[in-house]
């Protein structure tokens, strides 16, 4: 198991670096080639959201990116329960994971103020006005990126808080059938 930690400044140009690193580590971890583009896009969305939030709230603070390759030898023991190093059991077989964690330090007050938690990622995707929100596409809210991430990653966990948001995305490490 290997973990690569990358800190980037809140600059859009550094999102490209994060995408390239994620694709490289995913490829090395054994993620199928057909999934690499999904990882690249999901990491780009998560990092772009973090960059936009940092530009508004804390432009000098770094954004943390962790790439966790669980494809190596199985660890002897691991007491952590919320990382990719855990072995998930599905139908009696072990599934190894590749996990990407993007952590920002911008307050997620709008997420904390939400009272209806039924579909928080889909609420407010479309804006009524003509204004483009920071980090958003004209007519769409910045939450659209989080909705895209949930469609691209196999597992997603989003933890908003007053001291930042942590976006965890993971994919199973499976052999590439086209490699045979």
UniProtKB/TrEMBL annotation:
Full protein name: ATP-binding protein
Superkingdom of origin organism: Bacteria
Keyword Nucleotide-binding: yes
Domain Histidine kinase/HSP90-like ATPase positions: 8-171
E.C. number(s) listed in UniProt: 2.7.13.3
The protein's enzyme class: transferase
Pfam families attached to this UniProt entry: HATPase_c_2 (PF13581)
Keywords, sorted A to Z: ATP-binding, Kinase, Nucleotide-binding, Serine/threonine-protein kinase, Transferase
Record flagged with keyword Kinase: yes
GO MF annotations, alphabetized: ATP binding; protein histidine kinase activity
InterPro entries per UniProt: Anti-sigma-factor_SerPK, HATPase_C_sf, HATPase_dom
